[in-house]
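job 3f2a | input accepted
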Amino acid sequence: MTGSRPVRIRTVDRRPAHLASLAPVPIRLPLVDDEPPERRDAARNRDALLVACDALISEHGVDDVTMEAVAARAGVGKGTVFRRFESREGLMAAVLNRSETAFQASILSGPPPIGPGAEPMERLLAFGHARIELNLLHRSLIAAAGRAGARSYAAVSFTAMHVRYLLTELGVHGDIPFLATALLAPLEVPILEQQVEIEAMHLPRVLTAWDDLVRRVVAG
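job 3f2a | predicted structure (220 res):
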């Protein structure tokens, strides 16, 4: 139509408040559950199966949870579980993914000190403690998930970007991506298993040692 005015499109920054001060990054911060949305009924069925699996893991441990038991607890046929997750590994990976999504949510919008509102050092220490405890809690689940449970690019990128952000807020100098990787490495399951199970380190010692590492990196 002649004489019509061009339409202006306003861009709104919808990042969480604690990330709003960051300069834009080349890629969008990936989240674990960044997948095409499911139909509501499919999502409900999936959630019901994961809740059932979670409950069985709490009651009996990961090793004793079977696809048949999950189907019975959820009130569906075994074939439904296999169609949805393809294998026991796929089911355990989905339970792990659900936990990872909740962990990310606690960082983005949960209460301090892990969530927004605390000082950067408090947040960084709280993040490390939560990650260590979560990985030790879920090490059997991670093993049961096999290759399907290997941390996705989204999960690894999220934690790396978060630690890089906090190091920047703390005024750390040097190669921030490399320093973030150095801080994240001791939080991974193989290293934690070596320390806790083989070297018989108690959890308080592991947490204290990680705190010391963080303070040394921040102090330069």
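job 3f2a | Confidence is low (pLDDT under 50) at residues 1-29.
job 3f2a | closed
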